[in-house]
Amino acid sequence: MKYMLLRNQKPNYIYNVEVEKWQIDLAYFGYNLKVDGLFGDITERETRKFQRDMHIVSDGIVGDQTRAAMETLRRTKVQIYRRGSRGSMVTWIQQQYLDRGYKLAVDGIFGPETERITRLFQQDMRIGVDGIVGPITLEKLKQPFSSLPDDNPIETPAVPPANPPTSKIKVYIDNGHEPGNVNGGSQGYKEWEGNLKSARYLKEILDSTNKFDTMLTYDWNKTASVRQRGNQAASWGAQLLFSIHSNAGGGSGTECYYSIRIPNDRQYAAILTEKVSKEFGIPNRGAKTRESQTTKGADYMGIINSAQSGGVKHILLVESMFHDNANEEKLLLQDSTHQKLAQIYAEVISNMF
Fold this sequence. Notes:
The protein is about 45% helix and about 10% strand. The chain has 3 domains: about 15-75, PGBD-like superfamily/PGBD (Muramoyl-pentapeptide Carboxypeptidase, domain 1, Orthogonal Bundle), CATH 1.10.101; about 90-140, no CATH class; about 170-350, Zn-dependent exopeptidases (Aminopeptidase, 3-Layer(aba) Sandwich). Helix 9 runs parallel beside helix 11. It contains 13 helices and 6 strands. The termini are far apart. The chain has a 6-stranded mixed β-sheet, sandwiched between helices. The protein is an alpha/beta fold. It comes from Alkalibaculum sporogenes. InterPro entries: MurNAc-LAA_cat (IPR002508), N-acetylmuramoyl_amidase_3 (IPR050695), Peptidoglycan-bd-like (IPR002477), PGBD-like_sf (IPR036365), PGBDSf (IPR036366). Keywords: Hydrolase.
């Protein structure tokens, strides 16, 4: 035992200078307790929180391992951020999540939504899931966007076995959102259902040509994160990732995003929006890119960024029309609309190869 063992003194509380030093360390890193040199229930509670944050045994006892963890934290001068934290560092953390495709408000307040996104990120990165941003989670956030664990951080269905050698063109079709996603219109349209409908029609058309080999997100992993989708497309060897969405925000029309780092895809995105615009008589919002707010030259959208970083040669993300526009929602509620959209998508894809 290198250090004096500290534990709850209940019921015989006696001032201890080592306890006071420990409380000062905890308070410095944002733990909620009184510095009085008495090791009671509150100090034990905050010690357990610290131990969980550092991913060590959470027993509320300050021994060698806990002291070493504090020394590491003090040496690296890393703060821990949890629900209730505020400030510029929380803003940075939220922006990192947003740049990786996790949707949340960037307001500098670590609230329930930031905690939820932190848990999702930790699950994707295959590290301890506690909703708290400590040294390990911070280190992952500092890594390049393409950095995911080598053992493939998928905790739901396993990756399908590799297909036999084929000369077919591999197209990864992403249906945009997981089942139950709340995005939708006032007339009953649900984006995830519409995306999936278009995706299934597209898969059926491409498969029928005998030219393409397709994989659909919904069939592989219904709850995959945006970065998992991009990484799966890359690991599967897709030549194209095609992600299907509908838009929102009070606008009208169709648009298609491509990767900043694959500028030649602009021509295909432009052709696609022109065809959709003419077919349905809606505005053509054109081919677009969106740059990360924190990393110059990187793509803002997580699925595009991860797919491009993984080596996918072509990436298109289409926003077919606005589901919060009354007229366009009426179109999206019709099955024939998704059939026509799929036909347009398939035509553009076929002309790409």
